[in-house]
Amino acid sequence: MQRFTKFTLLLLLFQAAIHTWASPLTLQSAADDAGKALLKLFTYDAGGKLLHTGTAFFVSAQAEGVTTYTLMQGAARAEVIDAKGKKYAVSRILGANSTTDLVKFSVEGVKKCSFMQPAGTPASKGSHLFMLPAGATKKSQPVIVSVTDTEAYNQWLYYQTSAENKDDVFGLPLFNENGEVAAILQRNVKQGATTACAIDARFINDLNISATSPLQSDLRALLIPKALPDNAHDALTYLYMLPQNDSLWAQTAYNDFVATYPQMPDGYLSRATFAAGKGLYADSEADLNKALQLAAASTDSTYMTADAVHYHISNLLYRTLTSRSDTVAVHPNWTLQRAEQEAAQAYALKPNALYLMQQGYCCFSAKQYAEAYNHFEQASRDANFASSETYFATARALELSGGDSLQVMVLLDSCIARLPQPVSARNAQYYIERAARLLHAKRFRAAVDDYNEYEKAVGPRNLSDNFYYLRSQAELEAHMYQQALDDMRTAIATAAMPLPYRLEEAYILLRVGEFEEAIDAATRLLADLPENPDCYRIIGVAHGELGHKKLAVENLTKAQQLGDDVAASFLPKYQ
Predict the structure, then answer these.
(1) N or C end: fewer C-beta atoms under 10 angstroms in the chain?
(2) Helix 353-365 vs helix 336-349: angle between axes, to the nearest 10 degrees?
(3) 386 within 8 A of 379, measured Cβ to Cβ
(4) Residue 361: in which H helix or E strand, if any?
(5) CATH architecture of 501-575
(6) What is the pTM of this model?
(7) Element (H, E) at 215
């Protein structure tokens, strides 16, 4: 950067003041105020190792500061030192944008601070701005920085400046004669560039936390906790979107919400759910009780109601208990019985079919199938609530409680009839469920139809060898022999272990009278299963049907010697 003698600098300052209609005294006052707003920034990793040092500055009376995104990347902790030498911890990230290389943050413990307010109007080409060099003191004179060019960047501007393109100026604010920050110096990434760029300070106004901020990659990449949105509605949405793998961010957000809105049950429920997920069941229980207490006493219609809180508690207990593979008690008061009781209390406060379904799920998991059926069946009577899921749950509970199989089938028919169209891969599973019951009822063609509907919904590429095997068995019983053979061969082609399916193929060939092919298939299979009695029985019966009695007896005898009890029943026919 160009060096000036004191006289030359004063002359330039005077000329700049004339150009901007400000006196040198006014400009020096603005520079003094700017110096008080400057901060030294230090960032550290999770182990406490110093990562970066650089410049930041306050932009509001609430001790909100701005620095470069580059300085904050990878930092688990940051602190600033103000012009008076006081050190403060950075407490929350208030907004971030890696593209503009800006981060806004707040610090804790500041009672009063000097700050530079973002300028309301942009700088123009040819105008002069001012900066205090890095490490400026009270006696430091402002340095003139010329705006050599401007270009539009979204609704704001990007500047080319006369400042040198070197590390110790990046992040420094450029202020006008009123002491307002007009731009922030940044690295000029053009090859061979000797002068720095600057971004319009009005970009600071775009740095904020919104309801969807947890989805923003720039914020997710920063490790320091983030602030909540400014209103309760957005803050609640924000809580639902939090990345649960970032425990510090999530825990901080839940605690901040409870501290900001201590009368809202919602925050305690969200924190309770988070605590349960971390195995902190005592903490979770305390928050659940607090939420219920607040909901019962609240008259605010915007807060979560008591019935909803009871349901939330039931659902949390149910999901926690049913997701565990061990039998260790998570909390003395966390049982399926209590989960069902919480849902019952929710229903007593507000007769909602959702609460009946929740009672049913709790009873079902406790193997109280008759009670579960009663709850599911009652919920299914609500025409506005009934769905495929409610009817399937009702059918399954009735089935396991020993109910009438015809009534189970009626309920499954109602389940299928209410499938949203087009049927999704998830909902298509209900066709498989009904097909299994149709097979048991010996309604083989109807079962094949359900398998076909399943195939249509999920697509042939997403089907397993087991699906083709099951449909082949149904087709075989329905005397749809060619279809059965085709499906079995598809199962052979797609299976990692095709030997069992190859044996089934030989059985089908024998059953449909393709005796030569049956002999060939079973003989080829003996190369892999040389002592398999089923292969010898298939070969023996096929030879017998072809009139080859000697070969029939030889192979059936061999099957009998290998332990096949069925082979003996065929011997008299071919001897």
Answers:
(1) C
(2) 170
(3) yes
(4) helix 353-365
(5) Alpha Horseshoe (1.25)
(6) 0.81
(7) none
